[in-house]
Amino acid sequence: MFKEQTYPLDLAIQKKREEMIEVGLKKGLNHNETVLISQQLDQLLNDIQKLKHTNQ
């Protein structure tokens, strides 16, 4: 059951991580776009942690 709940988030995290790496390599790690994507990734990771904590 839990995996079914987190699967969409897992996919979103994977895609966002790949996007961050790609942009970071092209534009640099300190570029505004890379930082924004990193913050979005952080939010997704926080969301999945909340789900895990809720389902304990």
TrEMBL record:
Coiled coil: none annotated. Gene3D superfamilies: Helix-loop-helix DNA-binding domain (4.10.280.10). InterPro entries: HLH_DNA-bd_sf (IPR036638), Spo0E-like (IPR018540), Spo0E-like_phosphatase (IPR053028), Spo0E-like_sf (IPR037208). It comes from the Bacteria. This is Spo0E family sporulation regulatory protein-aspartic acid phosphatase. It comes from Aquibacillus albus.
